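wait is this the right file?? whatever heres the structure
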């Protein structure tokens, strides 16, 4: 496994791979890798000759009051995990390399980014779409892998990749959970022991929604109310949003039918966690 830390070096390698007729996949990450990332790398390993894992804590997707500075970083641990999962290259450019002085080009995916996390984190998806578009240009993969935990991000990237005619296939793989149900996230490291227990309420609220839908409830308002009740019973928890949306456009729905996404963002103490479930609902 090779670590590549400049854009010119990465571009040179990509040219060599292309000349050799090798296919490339990209797993974009911000590092502090966990089993969720490993599942993406393992899938990529099965489908292309070369697997590139990018590690870049992207400053432009963090708001001024967010956790850019304290976002967990551990390159040595990441290199070991990426190697074990099957990566050939860890691409870890510097912020100066990605956004040199005078940088002024951004990618904005409209509409899909107005809701859910986009509403609470203005500018976040512009930062995500911009960095992913740049990574696509540098690495030029056939396939790129993302996790379903960031369901809205995956949709935004699919739209961006299609609208910009990148020709890149976007694969979105299931959420990987801890044994007690907590969705894996690099931010789980922020949780104290008691917050870690409290954080289970995200999954519990989703399980409650799933059970209600399975037993025939179709009114979004009632399901959201039941989820809210569970969350407000936990003193350290504060819901940012709880939404049930149409998976094709992320618009809120009143009566469930077809493919729906039940998504929530909840602060546990100061840590903002997200989670979701996708459900096929019969009328
Ligand atoms: O999901 C993430 O880790 C990031 O948002 C991504 C896609 C790597 C862009 O910085």
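ok assuming it is, sequence goes like this
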């Amino acid at each position: 496994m090779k670590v590549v830390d400049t854009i010119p070096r990465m571009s040179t390698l990509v040219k060599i791979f292309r000349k050799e007729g090798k296919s490339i996949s990209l797993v974009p990450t911000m590092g502090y890798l966990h089993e969720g990332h490993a599942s993406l790398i393992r899938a990529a390993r099965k489908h292309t000759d070369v697997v590139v894992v990018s590690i870049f804590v992207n400053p432009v997707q963090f708001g001024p009051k967010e956790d850019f500075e304290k976002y967990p970083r551990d390159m040595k641990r990441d290199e070991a995990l990426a190697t074990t999962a099957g990566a050939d290259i860890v691409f870890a450019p510097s912020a100066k390399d990605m956004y040199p002085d005078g940088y002024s080009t951004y990618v904005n995916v409209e509409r899909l980014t107005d809701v859910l996390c986009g509403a609470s984190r203005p500018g976040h998806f512009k930062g995500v779409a911009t960095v992913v578009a740049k990574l696509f240009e540098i690495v030029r993969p056939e396939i790129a892998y993302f996790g379903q935990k960031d369901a809205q991000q995956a949709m935004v990237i699919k739209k961006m990749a299609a609208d910009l005619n990148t020709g890149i296939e976007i694969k979105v793989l299931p959420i990987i959970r801890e044994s007690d149900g907590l969705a894996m996230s690099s931010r789980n490291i922020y949780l104290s022991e008691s917050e870690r227990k409290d954080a289970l309420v995200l999954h519990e609220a989703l399980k409650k929604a799933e059970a209600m839908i399975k037993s025939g409830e179709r009114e979004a308002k009632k399901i959201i109310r039941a989820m809210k009740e569970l969350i407000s019973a936990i003193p350290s928890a504060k819901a940012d949003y709880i939404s049930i949306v149409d998976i094709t456009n992320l618009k809120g729905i009143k009566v469930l039918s077809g493919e729906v996404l039940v998504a929530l963002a909840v602060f546990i103490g100061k840590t903002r966690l997200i989670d979701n479930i996708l459900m096929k609902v019969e009328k």
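Residues 28-30, 58, 61, 128, 131-132, 150, 153 surround pantoate (CB under 6 Å). so i think its the right one actually
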